[in-house]
Amino acid sequence: MSIQTRRERDAQKMKEDILAAAREISNQDGFASISIRKIAQKIEYTPSIIYHYFSNKEEILEQLLESGYLKLTTSLASSKRISDNPEDTLRIMTRTYIEEALKIPEEFAIVHSDSSPNVIKHTSFLFEGASEKRKAIHMIKKCIIDMNPQEELEGGKVELTAQSIAAATMGLTLKLIAEKNLEEAQKKKIIDYFSDEMVVRMAKYPGK
Amino acid sequence: MSIQTRRERDAQKMKEDILAAAREISNQDGFASISIRKIAQKIEYTPSIIYHYFSNKEEILEQLLESGYLKLTTSLASSKRISDNPEDTLRIMTRTYIEEALKIPEEFAIVHSDSSPNVIKHTSFLFEGASEKRKAIHMIKKCIIDMNPQEELEGGKVELTAQSIAAATMGLTLKLIAEKNLEEAQKKKIIDYFSDEMVVRMAKYPGK
Amino acid sequence: MSIQTRRERDAQKMKEDILAAAREISNQDGFASISIRKIAQKIEYTPSIIYHYFSNKEEILEQLLESGYLKLTTSLASSKRISDNPEDTLRIMTRTYIEEALKIPEEFAIVHSDSSPNVIKHTSFLFEGASEKRKAIHMIKKCIIDMNPQEELEGGKVELTAQSIAAATMGLTLKLIAEKNLEEAQKKKIIDYFSDEMVVRMAKYPGK
Amino acid sequence: MSIQTRRERDAQKMKEDILAAAREISNQDGFASISIRKIAQKIEYTPSIIYHYFSNKEEILEQLLESGYLKLTTSLASSKRISDNPEDTLRIMTRTYIEEALKIPEEFAIVHSDSSPNVIKHTSFLFEGASEKRKAIHMIKKCIIDMNPQEELEGGKVELTAQSIAAATMGLTLKLIAEKNLEEAQKKKIIDYFSDEMVVRMAKYPGK
DNA sequence: AATGAATGAGACTTCATTCAT
DNA sequence: AATGAATGAAGTCTCATTCAT
Question: Could you say which residues form the signal peptide (chains A, B, C, D) (predicted)?
């Protein structure tokens, strides 16, 4: 390994250490109380050095959120191959989404509460046409279509249904994060019920 | 009116002025940037005097959130009398909830993202037994029962359903708040679809 | 004295203490090295309190310059009543200007080197029409006119002459400030020669 | 060319690049905001390397000022050969000085405001005997002598006159730099009047 | 010759809070 | 009831400089 690659790797590691420290603080005291000083203390360096790796605090926060969001979407995307049955696919997707989100609670909460243009740009899914632009909504839409073969589906309604499902899942997830002291058993019960039954009910058009 | 009651009333007014100022700041610059100084500037008093009415900043924030939550639940409670039809009741409740929440977006978002014990104490509804302790969940549960007369309902499942509906509604509301630049027409379409159709579908047990 | 006036006076005193401290620092280490911290240390208060009296550092610097400039112009204005002889008036004005400036060397140097609009607004005197707008130039112009009774004076030239004299005087003053280690005797010789002879020569039109 | 000389030349070039970068920064954001980092960024090297060529920041600033001053005096020196007429020589020298100075406004202003020993060492000219040690003063003195052939000139007075002229010219130049938004026409008028008429009047002893 | 990591000091500023009046 | 003075902690950031490589 050349000196340069080694240096780059070290720098990369430092960056990750900084982000990790920030993440920790976020999980302990809340995202809003992340500070350069606290990060520095955690990584046992002076605050100044942080500016060697990030140009300012904002960049750190951005990357933090981005990495969180990325993790979520990638793990979600990988879940689609699991089943051929649309109902099960929807179930698994929902469950995966919730479980992955619960691994990065603070970032998830922030990402989905933040309404700054920069974040919204990535996270919005209520706009008309979201089922084309947002992979997750698209995937849900496909499940819905497959689950209602005999129906004459109006495109707009299907999208609205998919969006509702996504919003509902996100809502439950946020609530699970906020109520972090909920008993494990109850937590499991809710996740099971929601992803196994509720979500399917939402996706299935009521028989006439 | 005695001098004392008058004083009390004045004090009450001052408290409300302070909270109102805080609310304004929250809506303008975000909840996190509420500061004693800014409040003082807004009410045109010195920062010190605020400590006459509140023992510290936290108390102000708490009461702010509480009042926001209160407004929401009271307006919700009043909606129940509107209809005798459980389906319509659920529809109206949902719509009312969303609309009222959109009037106090910042506080709503905060209340439902905050996971500090003090807030959670009031806002949690995923715990087992919530349909007894939480008016809103209780009301939803009643609607569900009325809407599924012929079913043999397992108590636990009904509560889980009610909780899911509540979480879903909250999720959609949060998303609507975050995506504040959504077009009005689309916003309306989503609210209509969700409260008129989606929520009913969630509440109705699928025929066997 | 009412409590309020007393408070105001105290506040005024504090402001002046702060400015005095700043002035001292400026004279010791240079204007550029004035810092809130150093001021605080000098007045034996915490840095924070300074923001009680000035909204930021800039305001302090501005007032510092302004006060320096003010002192100069007022002392200059008072010199005009001394003599009825225009030649002597010019001499005295010049001398007064130099001597007063040497009492506030740093501020003088700054004020007359600074080219920021805010400062220039007050200190510029090379523009056309300056003999109407600038008291000092106006006074010099009057001396020139009185000193050249038999000449047919072209207005524009008189102003240019006045401006040249002002610039020359300022230049010498600046140089005296910069060369602060100049021997007193030599310093005196130069000031004497310049204000007694040179300036008169500049003001007198050469006989044809 | 030997390797060594080549190295030296490279080193020399690097030094000049550094100084050039510093000069640019000075002209853009002001002399005071020159920083090692900014220089480094401009020459596209790391800050550290600068310490290879200069032992610290101060040395850079010093050389910067010195080089500016040098440029000025050399261009001044070259003007003397233009005319045999002492009056015209003085005129041309004055004009050249002003014009050259206006090409390096920031450095000129700094050089002539700075009172640190290192700078003063080069720029002072008010001391007794300056007409021997300072080329410019010497040249002015010679012009004065040539312009007043019939006078019995007292040596001291001639030097004082030369010094006054130099200070006056410098003063006008500084003022022209500070009032950078002065209209071009007016600027020209002043420079013309000062160098064509004023300076001659200063140099010529009044007839008895 | 050149780099990148690191430091420590210091810059301005905002904040919540206390206290005497 | 209300003020104004004051503090101390914390915030972000910039800087000159050193050192090992």
Answer: none
CB D143 within 8 A of CB D118: no
Q: Structure tokens of C204?
A: 């007198």
Place of tokens 């000062």: D194
Measuring alpha carbon to C1', the residue closest to nucleotide F8 is C46
Range of the domain at A38: 1-54
Tell me the C-alpha distance between B175 and B194, whole Å: 13
- Write the DSSP symbol of residue C205: P
Q: Chains that contact A by 3+ CB pairs under 8 Å?
A: B
Distance from CA of A53 to the nearest CA of B (A): 27
State pTM to two decimals: 0.78
Whose CA is nearest the C1' atom of nucleotide E19? Answer: B48
How far apart CA D114 and CA D135 sit, in angstroms, is 20
- For residues C8 and C169, what is the distance between their CA atoms, to the nearest angstrom? 40
The string of pLDDT tens digits covering residues A137-164 is: 999 999 999 999 877 777 789 999 999 9
* pLDDT tens sequence across C116-130: 776 788 889 999 999
The number of domains in chain C is: 2
Strand F and chain D: which residues 32-61 have CB closer than 7 Å? 33-38, 47-48, 51, 56-58
Same domain, C91 and C34: no
Q: Which amino acid is at A125?
A: F
Instruction: For D148-176, give one letter per residue: b (16+ CB within 10 A) or e.
Output: beeeeeeeeebbbbbbbbbbbbbbbbbbb
Here the CATH number for the domain that contains residue C165 is 1.10.357.10
Please indicate whether chains B and D are in contact, defined as at least 3 beta carbon pairs under 8 Å.
no
* CA–CA distance, D166 with D175 (Å, rounded to integer): 14
Name, in order, each residue with C-beta under 8 angstroms of B147's C-beta and a sequence gap of 6 or more.
B86, B87, B90, B200, B203, B204
A105 with A144, same domain: the answer is yes
Contact between C68 and C107 (Cβ < 8 Å): yes
